[in-house]
Every structure is written in structure tokens, then in C-alpha cells.
Amino acid sequence: MSVASARHILVNTEEECTQLKDRIEGGEDFADVARAHSTCPSKAQGGDLGQFGPGMMVKEFDEVVFSADVNSLQGPVKTQFGYHLLEVTSRE
Q: What pTM value is reported for the model?
């Protein structure tokens, strides 16, 4: 079974998600942006979700985490919780 590690930023609107993505791509630190803007409790860890396997996250999130290139910024990804920016930090 494969295992991935990821970090994410959860916000309420696609527009905010896109703006934060631009800031990170422009050089701002992912963890700093997560701590300042994410609505998920994981913001305390800079958005770090730790390790998880397929099926442990919502479907839309899972699909990106187990297909995207490691260390690439993905999003906005819409789920029932809002809009996510996510980065796969490792996958085995």
C-alpha cells in the first residue's frame, strides 16, 4: 500500500485559494501562509497533515495527493470542506 505525506491550506473561496497560491509561487513560505490563512486546525503545524494512505482523506483530495508530482503546489481543489491548496511532501 502506498503512503503519502502532504500539507495543505483550507479556505472558503476559490478566489482566496488562487491568491494564496500566487503568493506561495511568488516566494512566500507555505507554512507561514498556512498559519496565517488556513481554516483547518492543521494550520498550527503549517498545514502539515502527516502521513496517510489512500482512502483516509476525502476523494477529491486523495486523487490529487496520489497522482501529483511530489513537492508541486496543487489547487484550488474543491471538497465538501472548501478549497484546498496542497503540496505532496513525500509518497512511497
A: 0.94
Question: Tell me: the pLDDT tens digits for 16-27?
Answer: 999 999 999 999
CA dist 80 and 74 (Å) reads 17
Q: Which CATH class is domain 4-91?
A: alpha beta
Enumerate the domain spans of the chain: 4-91
CA nearest 46: which of 2, 3, 10?
Answer: 10
C-alpha to C-alpha distance for 31 and 53, rounded to whole angstroms: 22
Strands 4-11 and 73-79: unpaired
| C-alpha–C-alpha distance, residues 10 and 48, integer Å | 12
Which of 85, 81, 77 has the alpha carbon at shortest distance from 19?
Answer: 85
- Does residue 59 have a pLDDT over 90? yes
Which residues, including other chains, have CB under 8 Å from residue 11's CB and lie 6 or more apart? 17, 20, 37, 38, 39, 82, 83, 85
